[in-house]
Write a structure and sequence with these properties.
The protein is of the alpha+beta class and 327 residues long. It contains 10 helices and 13 strands. Belongs to the LDH2/MDH2 oxidoreductase family.
Length: 327
């Protein structure tokens, strides 16, 4: 079903507020969710259906437990990860602008960070290089050679400024994001072959069976290695839990680097654009019409949506979103 962007934004805001967030908190979460939705990313409004994003009882204000001129470690105190990550990103930007680079981590957040691309896009928009990692003790993904879920979907993102839109790599290290399974289940469709296993370890395309079994790490042993890398950086480095499904102690890590500590910033951005254009102009395979670089499809999708003022949303998903919003 097609819905106006304004109507979807209003509906999403109502749904977020229904979980008990303040208007200011809701606006931050709204920006993160709509960033994904307007780019065709499955980290958008689907996060609000089902159990949604309830506030954890007894949560408190995030607290800085360790800090240097270029770093900070934050105890999220059960605060929603999107709120903590947004504040961490702003802090990393300020430190990087002042000291050339910054690394900010947190433990003890709850719920999903949303699309990590949101945070690195924010960093890259300030002319800085951004990195973001997220891991949680919600074991959904099996390492290569196993059917036992030991990783979360362990996404990471990189944003690099250019003279045009940033280079924006935002990916989970699993074959499909967990919310991709939820979207498929909500729509009543199967996922592609090779995404995961059922509880007995047999391959399946049924999203519900994969949710009770395990998602595959993408790309075989290489993807599995990346998943482990994220777990080490956004888990043990920031004092978060890794292998306890009963824990809510999720971790995140944000890094920002000012390219001017190594090179001229304008030269860097211009050369990045030239490199990207050279990649896009490479010889095509067969009838392939165009070569895309990371983030380009998302920016184009967003531009098209904003130009038309409307966006497609799956009927069942929209219906469930309206239920959450009380409409």
């Amino acid at each position: 079903m097609r819905i106006s962007v304004n109507d979807l934004t209003s509906l999403t805001r109502k749904a977020i507020v229904s979980f008990g967030y303040t208007s200011d908190e809701a606006e931050i979460i709204l920006k993160v969710l709509m960033f994904a939705q307007l780019r065709g990313n499955n980290q958008g409004v689907v996060k609000l259906i089902g159990s949604g994003i309830p506030m954890r009882e007894g949560n408190g204000e995030p607290v800085t437990v360790k800090e240097t001129t270029v770093s900070a470690l934050i105890d999220g105190n059960g605060t929603h990860a999107m709120l903590v990550m947004d504040a961490m990103t702003d802090r990393a930007i300020l430190k990087a602008k002042e000291h050339g680079m910054a690394i900010v981590g947190n433990f003890n957040t709850t719920e999903s960070t949303g699309a990590l691309g949101y945070y690195v896009d924010k960093i890259a928009s300030e002319g800085l290089i951004g990195f973001a990692y997220a891991s949680a003790p919600f074991m959904t993904t099996a390492p290569y050679g196993s059917t036992e879920p030991l990783f979360c979907t362990n996404p990471f993102a990189v944003g690099i400024p250019t003279s045009n839109d940033p280079f924006l790599l935002d990916m989970s290290t699993s074959e499909i994001a967990y919310y991709g399974l939820i979207e498929a289940k909500t729509a009543g469709v199967n996922v592609s072959e090779g995404c995961g296993f059922d509880a007995s370890g047999a391959p399946t395309t049924d999203p519900a069976q994969i949710m009770s079994g395990a998602i595959k790490a993408f790309g075989g042993h290489k993807g599995s290695a990346l998943a482990l890398m994220v777990q080490l950086l956004a888990g043990s480095l920031v004092e978060a839990d890794s292998f306890d499904n009963e824990s809510d102690n999720a971790g995140n890590l944000v890094m920002a680097i000012d390219p001017s500590i190594l090179t001229n910033k304008e030269r860097f951005e211009n050369e990045n654009s030239e490199i990207i254009e050279r990649i896009r102009s490479a010889k095509r395979i067969g009838s392939k019409n165009e070569i895309f670089v990371a983030g380009e499809r998302g920016y184009r999708f967003k531009d098209g949506v904003l130009e038309s003022g409307e966006i497609d949303i799956q009927d069942n998903l929209l219906s469930k979103l309206k239920e959450v919003a009380g409409e």
